[in-house]
Structures are given as C-alpha cells and as structure tokens.
Amino acid sequence: MANHQNAGNAGLYNATGGLNGMPSAGHYSDMQTLMQNMETLSGWLQQNREDFLSVQEGLEQVERRNARYPTGLPSLPAVNGEASGQSAADPSAPTITSLQRSLDAANNRIAAYEKANEEHNRLQAAYEDTLTEATERIRNYVFQQNDYITSIHKHYTHLLQESRAETVQAQQIHQDWQRGLSKLNEELRRAVRAREDEKLPFTRKISALKEENRVLRGLAGWEPAQDDDSEDEELEAMSVAEGRGRNLKERERVVGNAMGPQSGK
C-alpha cells in the first residue's frame, strides 16, 4: 500500500511538473495540464471509492457471519479453523482474525488515500495560486511593454515630424538664397552691361579722333603716330571717373534690392 501511495504521488508530480517546473506560460498548455491533473485525481478518487465499497462489502460479510453465528455458539469457527464443539466449520470460510486483518489493511489504505488526496489537493491549490500569480504578472508585464513600445513610437513619430519640418525650413531658406543669388547675379550682369554701354561712346570718340589724327598727319606729310597705351589708359581713366558716381549708386541699389528679402527674414 505504501508503494501504491508513492507511485500515485510520483504520478502527480510528473503530471504537474512541481512548483518550480511549471510548464511554459500559455492558456492552452495551462488548461491542458490542469485537465490532466483533474483526470488523475478523478481516477484516484474512483479507485478510492471502489476500495471503500470492497471494504464495505467485507464488513457486511463479517456482519452477516456474526449474525449467522452469534458469539458463544459452538458452531462459530475458532481462530485456528477448528470446531469449538460439534462438527468442524467450512475450511473455506474466513476467520475473524483474517477478516480483522483485512479490515485493518483496508482502513490503512483508506487513510493513506485520504492523506494522499489531501496532499494532492494542497498541491493543486498551490499550483492554481502560482499559475494565477504568474498569469497576473505576465499580463502586467505585457501591458507595461505595450505602453513602453507605444511611447517609443510616439516619440519617434514626434522626432520624425520635427526633422521633416526642419528639412522643409532648410529647403525654403536654400531656395530663398538661390533666388537672391540669381537676382544678384542678374543685377550684376546688368551693371556690367551698363558699364560697357557707358564706355562705348568714349571708345568711338577716341577711335574717331585717332582716325582724324592719322588723316591730318598724312596731309601734312608727317609719319603716322604710334598708338600709346598710356593715352588709352588716361582716356579710359577719365571715362571711368566720369561714370564712377553713377555706377556706385547703381551698384548700391542693386545690392540693396538683392539682399533686402534676406534681411527681412
């Protein structure tokens, strides 16, 4: 009987995996393990009921024999199976000692089964409590992780929006600078063309004077005059000095118009 109890306990421990060897978290695996434990306990309870019924049948047989052979009658079988007075009893009939021994063994088995059942119930309650606590902790952990991931996504989205806004602003500033530089380049080109247009009358006048000088020298029989670069430079300096005031004002106006939008930003 002790071996049977130990085997039952070992079967329960193998089925439940112990408190420290709890199966992996998951509703399906937890319910499957719980159903296996319930089936094991149901089998042991059914076996206990059958043993209890067999013990009751044995007690009923003893009671019937005691009722058939009251105490003190010579026909009651003795302990050693011999007749106490008249003829010998049926040798196949159980004696009081054997029946008492069977009754004690059955009572011991019932007590052992009840103790094992209590231990199994305690282990099952501990397993259910541990499973409930683990499930609650896992649920809280998953909820916290979801909140953390959501906050990370929100922060990343916020940073991405800020980066996009900064990029758009930088592109806008670059476009403004490009427009300003294009306008400045165009104004400078206009100033250069205006400078060339201002120099053109003086250049034509100088060419006409040189031609007139050459003709007069030819009529007078003189040698043609050599071109002097210094004279050209003096004439050019005079023309530059004449238009310097107008050019300076024009350039100031061009630069002011080109840089005006940038300073406004």
Describe the protein:
By secondary structure, the protein is mainly α. It has two domains: 2-149; 163-264. The chain contains four helices and no strands. Helix 1 runs antiparallel to helix 2 (27-68), helix 1 (2-16) packs parallel to helix 3 (96-220) and helix 2 (27-68) packs antiparallel against helix 3 (96-220). The radius of gyration is 61 Å and the shape is rod-shaped. The chain starts with a helix and ends with a helix.
Q: Helical content, roughly?
A: over 70%
Enumerate how many helices there are, as a single number: 4
- Which parts are unreliable, with pLDDT below 50 for 5 consecutive residues or more? 1-24, 72-89
Strand elements, count: 0
Beta percentage is under 5%
| Alpha-carbon distance between the two ends | 98 Å
| Dominant shape | rod-shaped
What's the mean pLDDT score? 75
Largest sheet: none
Order of helices and strands: HHHH
Region (Disordered): 221-265
Biased composition (Basic and acidic residues): 243-254
Coiled coil: 96-137
Biased composition (Acidic residues): 225-236
